[in-house]
Amino acid sequence: MMQSFFALLVCGQCSILPASAHARITPPGNEVSFRQTVKGTIKDAASGKPLSGATIGVKGASQTTSSDDNGAFTINVPDNATALMVSYVGYVTQEVPIAGKTTVDVMMQTLSTDLNQVVVVGYGTQSRKDVTGATKTLKSAEFNKGIINAPQELLQGKMAGVNVTSASGEPGGMLGITVRGPGGVRTSNTPLFVVDGLPLDNSSTGGGDPLNFLNPQDIESIDVLKDASATAIYGARGANGVILITTRKGKAGASTLGFSAGIGFSTIARALPVYSASEFRKQVVNVGGILDDQGGDTDWQKEITRTAVTQNYNLNLSGGADKLTYYASFGMQKQQGILKNNDMNRYSGRFNATQKFWDDALIIEANLGVANTKNERPPIGGMIGDAIANNPTYPAYDANGNPAKYQNLSNPLVTLELEDDITTINRVTGNISPSLRIIKGLVYKLNFGIDNSTSTRDIVSRPNAVPLRDGRLETWNTYNRNTLIENYLTYNFDKGAHTFSALAGYSYQKFFQQGRNTSINKFPITPIDPIYNPGLGQELTLAANRPGGFALENELQSFFGRLNYAYDDRYLLTVNFRADGSTKFGENNKYGYFPSFSAGWRVSEEKWMKGSPFSNLKLRAGWGITGNQEIPSKITQALYNTTLSAGSSYPLYPTGPYPGGTAFVRLANPDIQWETSNQTNVGIDFGFMGGALTGSIDAFSKTTGNMLVKVNVADPIQPSNEVWTNVKDAKVINRGLEADLEYNYKSGRNLNFNVGGNITLLKNELKNSPYSVITTGSASGSGLTSATINGYVNGESLGTFYLREWTGFDKDGLSTYRDTDGDGTISDKDRIAAGTALPTVMYSFHASVAYKGFDLLANFNGVGGNKIYDNTANANFYKLRLSKSVNTTPEAIKYAEESVNNAAPVSTRYLKDGAYLRLNNVTLGYNFNTRALGISKYASMLRLSVTGQNLFVITKYNGYDPEVNTDRTVEGVNSYGVDWLSYPKAKSIIFNLNVSF
């Protein structure tokens, strides 16, 4: 049977038939007598707008029709007809009496709640009213607006418990995202992303955020699974939450052509307040320094930044007939960064189709996405470092208008001409999912998917005479391939008040990554860029240009199942189970087992609740275990290294060469197993005022155990000094409370109003660690390179700052620090837990109002309880540098009593409040009445809008932006809350045109 099925998939032919009306053949003796024709209109009761595509049927008969673009309809009704049945997606179905009537006007009421909304869960969908886990759905209409590079930005601040952080303002830069707090020390805390049923591996091919390939315009909805009762179906990858991304699909009965165009203008949101030339001249003298005055007046931050232009164009086609629906799109986004020579271009295409066969018994869904991204980056850290430190009296340009060249000062404009970093990524994702209805209620589904990407990264330093540079070209080629095949059965059946749904399946996923790199030095100064002719390089010695590479292969084999049960639509039960086997883990622990249970009680459906103020009231509770396998590959296996040195070999003869020697780099550990996350969730969903006011409250606890870390071996005679292991007793606990609230008001007089928000209270704590401290967060800057900023300490958060406590100055103006151990000496032993980089409160709120064709929407988000370590200020803004004619901010002279010779080591002096409130985006739009304009025959929708993004942020932090997390990882241990020469954030104004035909 299966062979025949697959043969049909490969060889079968299908016909695309236009939708047409068919006459109904009535058996003799059952002729229908039509009494009259009824006409009418279908409109939204709140806005008065016509509803196109509403279904109108005759009660008790088979006649049906649909409303046109103006909401009008005409239907023939039999003699004995008493009423019409009118239905429309998202609205309450109405029974309309027609006795003695030839015309009716129907005002449709929206559903009182979103309980009938279909939400995506693992390997299927559910009605919102039946969901027992902690999930949240965001539809495209609710997404954040503005310049969007990756899907994470669409939901920033939109969901309780989900924290999205952009490490910098760079276009296409990495975005951090955690669901209900981080749980791993060395493992990734990023959720699993699933795009149209294809789980991604979170790897970044060539750099940047791994989800940059997705065009936000193609996304229909994003569903976030937060707790284990919802994520356990993904087992080993569910510990950090699961984010399900669904792209747009076509709809039968209507063909639509949509076009959107946008242009945005971005400028630096907040420049650092370094001294102007005139103020610099005063302050250098005031601190006793010798002024190096070259007579200029240069704002170096202004010189390296620009008003950046972003262009965004999207074209989509969708529609279909009864058996075939399709969606196709083409997108282009050309984005300039606010730093000069920084550009990111993305070209994307998508085709999704659904074809039905055999009276809908066989349904084939296919999704295909392609993307090309090109990212050109200047040497960001060096440019910013020069711009904030350079003497402002040095002119930026020489007499000929060219960037000035100095021996004792690095002009970032010269650097822009000489340095480049260009990455081009091509990525194809796609899957085909045929499903076959075997018998009533039993469906078999196959899901075959592939995610293939290649990248080329060229890092070029062009040759130059002044400053002298030989020139160098490095080329990195990276290949990623992710292949998935899944088979699963779903069985649904009802028996009286009992409703069952069962799922059982098998999944196999294989990941392959490969990288190669080459380099060459010493190029002649010619008009030819080294990128276009590497053969011009003159130095190709193995010492400086040894080729390199790597290859990794991992496999994941899984068995999974789920059972849903509902009694009388009131009492709900969900059971999930998954067994995962991974090549990342030891021979003794290949498989992990991940169960979950959850239950719900729809209290509002009880008879004794009828007439209560609740339109919806549901209690939920769940428990489960999930895993985390986001660790480096092959750490369970021994690693050897062959070298030609005295450290790993010895000469065979007194004067002979060293032969190759092999030494252990890492010991094998076949007992390594998954990190596990034990999660409990209790929640309540509610609705009042006929569903106008809705919300939910969740209390949760997530305990991560079996922590994976790399440690030094205790036995001094071991052949290697490090090994990976599970720390059995150590735990990371995240406890919190989430609340969402939404209010919708429709006046019926063309006025709609919406306001809502969410808040998350979160506590993260490390317990039972056998280590006094695990340090991370490497500091940068002169004299700081051996210092660390973060420390993992028992009883504290993972994002804790572990620092010496600065207490002021002594009589000589030198910094003093608290001697916590009382030994009379200030050392690393005196460091304290000085606060956390992880917010203890996250919140957002939004409001929108629409009147006739106008609408206004604003989104705010913020965090509190967190701190930031300003490594940029620590390394740059102190008196000694100012006295040497290096620019600073007023922070350097904040304390008059400080000596000009005072050192600035890592300490709490540069630990700052990281709380903020941001106007994330605000949009004003107008929807034209195409019918009034006389163009409705050609354009069904025409909209103009303007969006402001990141227009202001309220914060005490005096760096570029408080939403920052520069990667300062040490030995793979995650760092948090460090600001080191981060890319400035931009504020933007975007103008958009949307039209549908």
From TrEMBL:
It is a multi-pass membrane protein. It comes from the Bacteria. It comes from Chitinophaga barathri. GO terms for cellular component: cell outer membrane. Residues 1-23 form the signal peptide. Belongs to the TonB-dependent receptor family. It is found in: Cell outer membrane. This is TonB-dependent receptor. Keywords: Cell outer membrane, Membrane, Receptor, Signal, TonB box, Transmembrane, Transmembrane beta strand, Transport. Residues 128-242 form the TonB-dependent receptor plug domain. PROSITE patterns: TONB_DEPENDENT_REC_3.
